[in-house]
Amino acid sequence: MTKREEQEKVRLAEIKKQLAELSYQYYTLDAPTVSDYEYDMLYRELETLEKKYPQWVTPDSPTQRIGSKISGTFAKYTHDRPMLSLGDVFSDEEVREFDARVRQELPGERVAYVVELKIDGLAVNLIYEKGRFVRGVTRGDGHVGEDITHNVRTIRTVPLHISDLSDHVEIRGEVYMPIPAFRALNEQRSADELEPFANPRNAAAGSLRQQDPQVAAERKLSFFAYALGGTSDWRPESQEALLQTLRNLHFPVNREYRTFTDIQDVIAYIHTWDTRRDTLSYATDGMVIKVNSFAQQQMLGNTVKIPRWAIAYKFPPEQARTKVLQIRVG
Ligand SMILES: NC(=O)c1c(N)nc(OC2CCCC2)nc1O[C@@H]1CCC[C@@H]1O
Which atom of ligand 1 lies nearest, measured to the CA of 290? Predict the structure, then answer.
């Protein structure tokens, strides 16, 4: 390799690193530190170098987010640890019953709960090998999902590489379509005389099922990470510690999670979102209450489909609330 090629190879690696950091600031932190122009100039320099040296293009380059169409059906993938669903509850009383059961099964233990917004999207499994994003899979039936890597890699908040170089890391979270993107998409679909999507969840699901990643890329999907799959050598102590680790790895983590030791405080926090959730830029359909300690989650275990250490408190459906509001206003 000539001196010049050597320098260009270094420059190429440097730009990829910078663009990944700038993209994280812009899309995940919503706090860009450079102008769009500066970003575009760097991106163009990378494209020029990759055109000159195609042998140096790596799958985790920002230029590789939109690959080629896939043909035919999606490949199937078996999760190395099942992706559980959640049992639903609809009242404060049922939340207290959950707490009573947990404490009864953990006699003498100090129990803390992490409460998270329940994002109304699509559960997805992200697989990283030696730090590189290699596969994105739908939850499917919890055991076998569909390989939608080509579409997941177009999601700007999904890192194409992470600083943890373990052999196999599985990050689970929710792919969702922000409400502004959902509204714009439906306006466009009405203009094109296409059937609008009923809700952001359906729009996200429809977008992830596209054969053409160019279409998925235009749907402005996003992602919140909230759980681990079978990950080779991570041993986080608790949900809280896991969420912090995910944030440190530059995964988008929803910031509205809180930790409580008293179920009354959990219930009070849930109700602060009864109407406040309408101000969020993404759809939610409830709150997820999880026993914080992973050791205690292990002791409580899971049924075939759902954990015994977590529940979803569901908000009343929109129309019901609107009716109540009408009566009150009327
Ligand atoms: N939708 C969510 O925001 C959400 C969340 N914040 N946390 C979890 O934790 C999982 C981990 C093990 C059992 C449930 N699951 C969520 O969504 C579930 C995934 C599958 C069905 C629900 O969408």
Answer: 9
If you search the block for the tokens 């005389």, which residue do you land on?
Answer: 193
Q: What is the pLDDT of residues 114-165, one digit of tens each?
A: 999 999 999 999 999 999 999 999 999 999 999 999 999 999 999 999 999 9
ipTM of the complex: 0.98
* Structure confidence at residue 194 (pLDDT): 96
**Which CA distances in Å does 78 have to 19, 140, 288, 312?**
33, 9, 25, 25
Model pLDDT, residue 72:
86
Q: Which two tokens stand for residue 174?
A: 């929710």
The alpha-carbon radius of gyration of the chain (Å, integer) is: 22
Name the residue at shortest CA distance from atom 18 of ligand 1: 85
Distance 288 CA to ligand 1 centre (A): 7
Amino acid at 60: D
**pLDDT < 70: residue spans in the chain:** 232, 319-330
Ligand 1 pocket: which residues have CB below 6 Å?
Answer: 84-86, 116, 118-119, 123, 139, 174, 226-227, 288, 307, 310
Between the CA of 17 and the centroid of ligand 1 the distance, in Å, is: 31
pTM confidence score: 0.93
Among candidate residues 118, 220, 305, 314, the one labeled active-site is 118
Annotation marks residue 118 as catalytic: yes
Give whole-number Cα distances, 241 to 118, 186, 257, 270, in Å: 19, 39, 12, 21
Smallest CA-to-CA distance from 24 within 124, 123, 159 is with: 159
Cα 185 to ligand 1 centroid, rounded to whole Å = 26
- What whole-number distance in Å separates Cα of residue 24 and Cα of residue 18? 10
CA nearest ligand 1 atom 16, residue: 118
Instruction: Give the model's pLDDT for residue 330.
Output: 44
